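Annotated sample (chain length 233).
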Amino acid sequence: MSQFKKLNIILKDFYKNNTVKKILRLKESELIKLISEMISEQSGVPMLDPTKIPGATFKPRPSNAMNPQGGVNQFTQQKLNIGCVIKTPETKKTIKGYNGEVFTFLGDGTFVDAKNQKGKYVCGNQANIVNLMYDSDPKAVKYFNMSPQPVKPAIAKAKPDPKVIELQKQIKVALPNFNLGTSGPNKDGIDGIMGPRTKEGQRQMIQIKGQQSLQNLSNQGQKLVNSFKQYRQ
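Output written by the structure step:
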């Protein structure tokens, strides 16, 4: 029976009544050989077996269950790629990432974290991202952002204001027991900065001065009343 007829019989069984009767299990080299023989039978021209061509090489596809240090990682399906971390001729590099985590990466595709836990790593699909697979749980992939932590903008120091210095001196006189703090050249709180203590001192001083003003008006009013009574007598 020719190879062509043999394949026809298998395909008919495969599709008959939508039920699989036979399962065709062929290696890649066997499938190429089978197709070559079919073409040769139909055309009458002999086909060469690509696995037997002088000087030709036939490489089967690599397995997906290989160690990440030699092929494809069985969990992440990624080949060893450490160029985003280690540059030739470096052998290791310690990086503090975006979230403050610290990892030491080695040139053999392994890493060590701050707790001395080890694993393997490959570069991620996004820039500055490294995929980490711990030896303790290689199925759990951790993403490490190599980008440095953002620098917090420096807060500009306020310059002393002469008007605020004068106000603070007035607070010291009006409220001898009020605590302005220990800032300033003399460590007495007079620094020319309108901080929360100065604002509170100003509020209390205005309140006291307001009460004093009302008392003065009340005293002056009483004097006028007394003078008017004396005038009528």
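Annotation: The chain is about 35% helix and 15% strand.
Annotation: The first strand starts at residue 92 and ends at 96.
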